[in-house]
Design brief:
With about 280 residues, the chain is an alpha+beta fold. It has 8 helices and 15 strands. It has helices at about 20-45, 65-85, 110-115, 190-200, 215-220, 235, 240-245, 270-280, and strands at about 55, 65, 90, 95, 105-110, 125-130, 135-140, 145-150, 155-160, 160-165, 180, 205-210, 225-230, 250, 260-265. An 8-stranded mixed sheet has the order 4-3-5-6-7-8-9-10, sandwiched between helices. The chain has a 5-stranded mixed sheet with strand order 12-11-13-15-14, with helices on both faces. Strands 1-2 form a two-stranded antiparallel ribbon. A hairpin with a 3-residue loop joins β3 (about 90) and β4 (about 95). α5 (about 215-220) packs parallel to α7. The longest helix is centred in the first third of the chain and has 25 residues, at about 20-45. It starts with about 20 loop residues before the first helix and ends with a helix.
Length: about 280
């Protein structure tokens, strides 16, 4: 049955959750890992080769897309359409396709700027949204052969055939924390810049340039805080089950749900998360 879960309006929105059993979730997660690995091979065809970078934003802005982005998303859509034709799709490059209330949320290359520059901090993101929350998520970085995955209860990591569980690290104090964000220049309003600056002033170290990858490093226990602004659902949904499955938290800056993107904070330690939220909301 095809239902209107917000995709018919061209965007993702909340709807009644579709029940998925633990056994079904395991099958879906195994499929997502395979599909992400297959699609990642498409990205490698273009990575560090001469390629055209197109601007989706038009004059006055820059939102890059490459043929690698499009090829990855096409591969994922084809795999999902074959395995789960009743499911919906919501992808960055080719938009929405309504389904039965379960929706695959796709960012074929998160970090296209880094990808186009030959840098390593990019990845393919694939999530399954049940109408209320992403119930599984996969991040695949094919060049270094890394896969991160989670279902909100457990998270894992694979590289070169070796697998292990993921776990965040304990770090309750801001003065001991490592903070990561893609770029301080993305906090465009004065209030956002002040909020980020207040947080950055309190931590031990701040690192830039990660896109999706610093969220993976948080789940791995190497980063303590990740903060972003202006995210879309496809930028964050795959990362939520990974971080939560590793024991961390992901919320909006106001402490609410982050599944639809916007201003997002992820933390490995719950006490640290509360302190960071206080700082982000302490500025006018």
């Amino acid at each position: 049955m095809i239902v209107d879960n917000g995709l018919m309006a061209g965007r993702l929105q909340y709807s009644a959750p579709v029940p998925v059993s633990a056994a079904e979730r395991a099958v879906l997660l195994a499929f997502a890992r395979r599909a992400a690995k297959e699609a990642g091979e498409q990205a490698l065809r273009w990575f560090r080769t001469p390629m055209q970078v197109h601007n989706k934003a038009g004059e006055g802005g820059f939102d890059p897309v490459t043929e690698a982005d499009r090829a990855c998303e096409r591969t994922l859509r084809a795999a999902i359409g074959t395995a789960w034709p009743e499911h919906g799709l919501y992808g960055e490059e080719f938009g929405p396709q309504p389904g039965n209330g379960l929706t695959w949320v796709i960012d074929p290359i998160d970090g296209t700027r880094g990808f186009a520059a030959g840098m390593l901090h990019w990845g393919l993101l694939l999530a399954l949204f049940d109408g209320q929350r992403p119930i599984i998520g996969v991040l695949r970085q094919p060049f270094v052969d890394e896969t991160f995955w989670g279902d909100g209860e457990w998270a894992g990591y694979q590289r070169a055939g070796q697998e292990r569980p993921l776990a965040v690290r304990a770090c309750p104090e801001l003065g001991s924390a490592t903070l990561a964000t893609t770029s301080p220049h993305l906090f465009k309003s004065g209030a956002q810049a002040a909020a980020f600056g207040a947080l950055a002033d309190q931590v031990r170290m701040t690192r830039y340039g990660g896109d999706c990858y610093h969220f993976a490093l948080l789940a791995m226990g190497h980063v303590d805080l990740a903060v972003e602004t202006g995210l879309n659902p496809y930028d964050i949904q795959a990362l939520i089950p990974i971080i939560e499955g590793a024991g961390g938290q992901v919320t909006a800056w106001d402490g609410g749900d982050a599944a639809m993107g916007g201003n997002v904070l992820a933390s490995g330690d719950p006490a640290l998360h509360e302190r960071a939220l206080e700082l982000l909301n302490s500025r006018p």
